[in-house]
Design brief:
The complex is a heterodimer of chains A (about 180) and B (about 290).
Chain A lengths: L17 E2 L4 H24 L22 E10 L7 E3 L1 H4 L3 E2 L2 E2 L4 H4 L2 H14 L6 E10 L11 E9 L20
Antiparallel strand pairs in A: 2-3, 2-6, 4-5, 6-7
Chain B lengths: L1 H10 L3 E2 L2 H17 L32 H20 L4 H19 L5 H15 L10 E3 L2 H24 L8 H6 L9 H8 L4 H18 L6 H18 L5 H6 L2 H4 L2 H15 L13
Antiparallel strand pairs in B: 1-2
Helix pairs in contact in B: 2-3, 2-5, 3-4, 4-5, 5-6, 6-9, 9-10
The chains are: A alpha+beta (about 180), B mainly alpha (about 290).
């Protein structure tokens, strides 16, 4: 930034104006950079909603694009030794952190990934105050009805069942404890 | 060659730089809203010994194990960086680097989902880094428009791609608008009282969706037309405002709004500044001497 120039749209005297712009050699580089950036975004746009390579992720923008007629949330249950049946767990109390848009474990990118569900299962076993023998997760889904959040046509789908004590590896090769309370 | 030089002269003519002052403050507000509350989740997320993940390009957790103390340090680094940006001057660029290191180490370690507003803020920060925002008294200065062009390209890509994806891949944006009504009912992103009520007002869906898609799709062109430029930004302000009160999309609106002072045509921005200064300020703009940082 060093070359002085008349500001566009200003017709008055320049002596009281502090006006500089990029030096000429830099202008060429900056113009080429901007052009390259435009090309990058156009190429990434061409890829959106199909296969997206890693290098395209920073430039990928699609928000609330498709119609989504159903809604869903995740529920969990635990089974305890010497007790019959499955007992409901309040997952939100065990894993309270939310995105702006809901609990972390509720995201579809989470549910679709068996490895993440395994870690969630093992972590649920460890975070419950009383150690269960197994935990299971189900997705509850229903059709949205305009103007209301009420729904009575729920369908459910099993997501994952975890036997507490099963060996689960975290990234980097660390292992979650198979028994005992929270590590 | 002469024509190239003339074109470069035209393209790089200095523009009023006062808008960067507002962008700097608004960036700090958006970054704080986005990452400030992370400190309350350290025990559950970054400092948790159990819920650790690696995904896609975010594989930091394979190389180190974050303790709660390390997470507090990283969060503190972010807040220090944001404060330095707020302070401005020579502290701005180191502040951006500190914030970026802290924020993206935590995002990379968490590895669950880098959200749209995380990426948008990263782009805006990159623009801020190469902008003249580190200078003082920018309301008296005219600077290279490169950073403004950079921001125009980024915001045009975001709005344009979003709009054209809707246009090309989902017909209901232009038929009955039901796509929006259904998004208002999303279990996590939606479900706000006003959004739920709006979802029942089916007559309003089509006007809202059609205006949204047209505004997004043609933003890259219309923002460049001086007469239409402020109208586009007013519509954008309203668009993000409605989203803010009807849906849960984090601080996306604040990140987007932080760019508007510099997306506004600089001549208009300068006029607006002079008008406001003349109306509410105590000093004349033109006669003020420039102070060094």
């Amino acid at each position: 930034m060093g070359d002085s120039a008349q500001p566009r749209g200003y017709d008055g005297p320049m002596d009281d104006r502090d006006a500089t712009t990029s030096p000429r050699w830099l202008q060429t580089i900056q113009a080429a950079f901007l052009l390259g950036l435009v090309v990058y975004f156009v190429v990434v746009f061409q890829m959106s909603l199909t296969y997206v390579p890693k290098w395209a992720v920073p430039g990928l923008w699609q928000m609330f694009t498709l119609r989504d007629p159903t809604a869903a949330y995740v529920v969990a249950e635990a089974r305890y030794k010497d007790r019959a049946g499955w007992e409901s767990i309040e997952l939100g109390e065990l894993f309270p952190s939310r995105w702006g848009s809901g609990y972390r474990f509720s995201r579809s990118s989470f549910k679709k990934n068996p490895r993440r569900m395994r870690v969630l299962g093992a972590s649920t076993c460890l975070r419950l105050p009383e150690e269960p023998t197994a935990v299971r997760f189900r997705e509850i889904r229903w059709r949205k009805v305009m103007g209301t959040l009420d729904h009575d046509d729920e369908t459910e789908r099993p997501l994952y069942t975890h036997r507490c004590g099963t060996r689960v590896r975290l990234p980097g090769g660390r292992e979650l404890p198979r028994d005992g309370r929270r590590p | 060659m002469k024509r190239v030089n003339q074109a470069l002269d035209w393209l790089f003519a200095p523009q009023w730089a006062g808008g960067w002052i507002a962008v700097r403050y608004l960036w700090a507000l958006a970054a704080f809203l986005q990452y400030g509350s992370d400190v309350f989740s350290i025990g559950d997320v970054w400092g948790a010994p159990d819920m650790v993940f690696a995904s896609g390009p975010y594989r930091l957790s394979e190389y180190f194990f974050m303790t709660p103390m390390a997470a507090y340090y990283l969060w503190g680094l972010q807040m220090l960086g944001i404060s330095m940006v707020l302070w401005g001057g020579k502290a701005l660029r180191p502040g951006l680097v500190l914030w970026a290191f802290g924020a993206w180490t935590m995002l990379g370690y968490e590895a669950l989902n880098v959200k749209a507003h995380d990426r948008l803020l990263a782009w805006v920060s990159l623009v801020l880094f190469v902008s003249p925002a580190h200078e003082r008294n920018l309301h008296l200065k005219y600077r290279s428009p490169f950073a403004r062009y950079f921001l125009l390209v980024v915001m045009s890509a975001i709005y344009g791609a979003t709009g054209w994806n809707k246009w090309l891949h989902e017909p209901t944006w232009f038929t009955d608008g039901s796509v929006l009504g259904l998004h208002f009912l999303h279990y996590h992103h939606g479900s706000r009282p006003l959004g739920v009520w709006l979802s029942s007002q089916t007559w309003s869906h089509l006007p809202m969706t059609a205006i949204t898609v047209l505004w997004e799709a043609f933003f890259p062109i219309l923002i460049l037309i001086r007469r239409i430029n402020p109208i586009m930004l007013v519509l954008g302000f309203l668009f993000h405002g409605v989203l803010l009160i009807t849906m849960n999309v984090g601080p996306f609106a604040f990140v987007s709004w932080s760019t508007y002072p510099i997306l506004l045509h600089p001549d208009l921005a300068e006029k607006a500044y002079r008008f406001l200064r003349g109306r509410f300020g105590s000093a004349e703009v033109t006669g003020e001497p420039a102070e060094s940082p």
